[in-house]
Amino acid sequence: MEVPMDTKKIAIATDDKETISQHLGRANYFAIYTITPDEVIDRQYIKNEAAHHRKHRSHDDHKRVHREMISQLSGCQVILAAGMGDPIRKDFEEAGMKGYVVVEGGSIEEAVQQYLDGELMINRDGGCEHNRRE
């Protein structure tokens, strides 16, 4: 299959391969959608190799997990989850990716279609509480 030049890859955190996961680092899988401005041309699911995030104990562990996730999602330009902390969003940005927090439990298919239509609702207050500094 020849891939059009104007493609983009979107990674969506998911536990069940149907809905968007609440927590990026703890999601079981990533749904990887390859899109053009008009349509989805491919979708695949990969195991989240950094899902052991829940076992981290230090700031260094967080950074290591972030590096693993960025490496695993290299080639993706957009990352969607219902929750992700500011540190991983900043790390994504430094890697040339954009991380967005969207509605929890929403359908992956609906979110991708909303993204294509320019109507994806971003939760600007969403994030991961354990990464917030008050």
Description:
- The protein has three helices and five strands.
- Helices cover 25% and strands 22% of the residues.
- It is globular and about 40 Å long.
- It has one domain (8-129): Dinitrogenase iron-molybdenum cofactor biosynthesis domain (Nucleotidyltransferase, domain 5).
- A five-stranded mixed beta sheet has the order 3-2-1-4-5.
- The longest helix is centred in the middle third of the chain and has 14 residues, at 59-72.
- The chain starts with 7 loop residues before the first strand and ends in a 17-residue tail after the last helix.
- Residues 128-134 have low confidence and may be disordered.
- It has 134 residues and is an alpha/beta fold.
- β4, α2 and β5 (98-101) form a beta-alpha-beta unit.
The dominant shape is globular
- Main-sheet strand order equals 3-2-1-4-5
What is the number of E strands?
A: 5
Mean pLDDT across every amino acid position = 85
Keywords summarizing the entry:
134 residues, Nucleotidyltransferase, domain 5, alpha/beta, five-stranded mixed β-sheet
In short:
The protein has helices at residues 59-72, 86-94, 108-117; strands at residues 8-14, 29-35, 40-47, 78-81, 98-101. By secondary structure, it is α/β, with parallel strands linked by helices.
Element layout with pairings:
Layout: E1 8-14, E2 29-35, E3 40-47, H1 59-72, E4 78-81, H2 86-94, E5 98-101, H3 108-117
Parallel strand pairs: 1-4, 4-5
Antiparallel strand pairs: 1-2, 2-3
